[in-house]
Recover the amino acids of this structure.
């Protein structure tokens, strides 16, 4: 059974990476066009405040329910499996619909935060209050698709997600561009685009599941039917995850809350430009891996409880995945800082290259490395920033195997991390005068704390499960020669930036050529000294029930 889970997880990564490729290319192009054509103040309000509103409503309304839905018992196959699939679908639908009552409570509070406390600078933007209300309505429309999403995710229908969400992103990008650039509706354009996105999700998932998922019918989606009750165990998990979501809002959206309350709209726009560039790796690579890992770890945990040796499979997958993510993060730390200024200039011209954006982006590359270990830190849900409120590789494992009491203890620890993060944000932004760069420093502190908490849990979990060595950190580190190659490439590109870089095309090309040569060297070294990584991944996927004690 664990072999089937792993194979579906690998297939899921392929589909979700394809989804990320399509949606990120579209949203990235849209972002560049918007930044070049709209005022800095409008872009700042859209990219921080409007997206923060969406993020708060969506995350608080559904995150806990989403995670609880993935802990429904194994569905199975065959005749008996068909009945179990029907029962699992009913449980998921009943639980997922609870996001609507949650949104009824959350939406008025969040809208009031933005409209009743608008600053004079915000109030001067045409349609500011109306755009916030329309955004909230668009979030509720998106929540109406939540039962469909949870069913697709539980049964690992990753192809459905790829097709439906790619179509939704495409229509949202088109609506944003037409309404913002051609009709010049400002913030209202992005709000209406969110409504289009949510409606497309509802239609797309309904059509796909109706025609492609055996036994599914629209009647299953009727909420709270007679004779159907929400499973008490799942509800307790949902409450624990939702309480954790409240705390995670500080961890994942604290930087935008600080920006919203302290910095100007122009500074908010600068930070968003950097965030959009710096988080490309998280949204393209880390997010699909995190989503698939959470589902796979949860199912493997169930298999391990049934007396199989799936715990060794989970141990091996976690170790290999972290090692792969660490290699990707090191690529960004090696080349990102020395090419951030050139990238900002090429994409956004001197409008942003002469601001603090290049420096902020250089520091953000360090944060990408930490995200590679622990995962994406959460972002908004909009045309520019696709929502990826996921906990990362290490936290995905923790949340997929932790029991109720363990989750409650983790919630308290995450709350302490949130408090430390907010204190670090205020210290770095105001006291140390770091501005937007200070927010990146605070995010790094936050991520380091979360990595430490997750690692402590993972090591203890495997020792309790019979893996005597626990989870030694040395098992995820790349080969020493690989680390030395990355360090050498960083030094070479740093010298190149100091000696060769300028806005003149010929020197810019020379600087990029140095980076390309160093990149080829780094990849060659990785290929030569990390072959075992590829071999072990193939072994995990192809072998039926053989698990080694790593």
């Amino acid at each position: 059974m664990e072999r089937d889970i792993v194979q579906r997880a690998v297939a899921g990564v392929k589909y979700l990476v394809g989804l990320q490729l399509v949606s990120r290319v579209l949203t990235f192009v849209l972002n560049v066009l918007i930044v070049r054509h709209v005022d800095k103040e409008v872009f700042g309000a859209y990219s921080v405040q409007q997206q923060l509103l969406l993020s708060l409503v969506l995350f608080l309304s559904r995150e806990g329910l989403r995670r609880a839905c993935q802990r429904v018992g194994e569905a199975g196959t065959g005749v008996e499996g068909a009945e179990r699939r029907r029962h699992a679908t009913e449980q998921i639908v009943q639980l997922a619909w609870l996001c609507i009552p949650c949104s009824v409570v959350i939406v008025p509070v969040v809208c009031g935060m933005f409209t009743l406390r608008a600053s004079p600078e915000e109030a001067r933007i045409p349609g500011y209050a109306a755009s916030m209300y329309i955004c909230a309505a668009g979030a509720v429309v998106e929540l109406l698709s939540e039962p469909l999403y949870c069913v697709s995710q539980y049964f690992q229908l990753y192809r459905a997600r790829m097709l439906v969400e790619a179509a939704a992103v495409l229509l949202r990008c088109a609506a944003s561009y037409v309404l913002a650039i051609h009709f010049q509706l400002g913030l209202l354009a992005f709000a209406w685009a969110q409504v289009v996105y949510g409606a497309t999700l509802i239609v797309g998932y309904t059509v796909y599941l109706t025609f492609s998922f055996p036994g599914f019918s629209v009647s299953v989606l009727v909420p709270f039917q007679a004779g159907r009750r929400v499973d008490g165990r799942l509800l307790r998990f949902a409450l624990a995850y939702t309480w954790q979501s409240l705390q995670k809002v500080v961890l994942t959206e604290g930087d935008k809350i600080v920006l919203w309350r302290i910095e100007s709209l122009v500074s908010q726009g600068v930070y968003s430009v950097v965030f959009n560039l710096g988080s490309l790796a998280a949204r393209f690579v880390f997010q699909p891996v995190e989503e698939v890992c959470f589902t796979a770890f949860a199912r493997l945990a169930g298999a391990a409880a049934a007396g199989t040796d799936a715990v060794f499979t989970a141990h091996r997958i976690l170790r290999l995945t972290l090692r792969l993510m660490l290699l990707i993060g090191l690529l960004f730390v090696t080349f990102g800082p020395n090419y951030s200024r050139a990238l900002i200039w090429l994409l956004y011209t001197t409008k942003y290259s002469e601001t603090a954006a290049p420096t902020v982006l250089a520091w953000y590359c360090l944060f990408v490395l930490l995200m590679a270990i622990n995962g994406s830190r959460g972002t908004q849900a909009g045309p520019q920033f696709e929502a990826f409120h996921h906990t990362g590789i290490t936290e995905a494992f923790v949340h997929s195997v932790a029991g109720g009491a363990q989750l409650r203890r983790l919630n308290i620890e995450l709350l302490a991390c949130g408090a430390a993060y907010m204190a670090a944000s205020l210290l770095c932004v105001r006291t140390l005068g770091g501005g937007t760069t200070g927010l990146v420093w605070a995010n790094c502190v936050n991520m380091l704390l979360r990595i430490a908490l997750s690692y402590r849990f993972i090591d203890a979990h495997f020792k309790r499960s019979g893996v005597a060595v626990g989870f030694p950190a040395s098992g995820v580190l790349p080969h020493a020669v690989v680390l030395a190659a990355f360090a050498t490439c960083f030094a070479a590109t740093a010298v190149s930036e100091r000696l060769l870089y300028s806005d003149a095309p010929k020197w810019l090309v020379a600087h990029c050529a140095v980076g390309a040569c160093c990149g080829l060297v780094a990849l060659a070294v990785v290929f030569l000294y990390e072959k075992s990584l590829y071999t072990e991944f193939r072994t995990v996927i192809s072998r039926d029930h053989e698990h080694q004690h790593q």
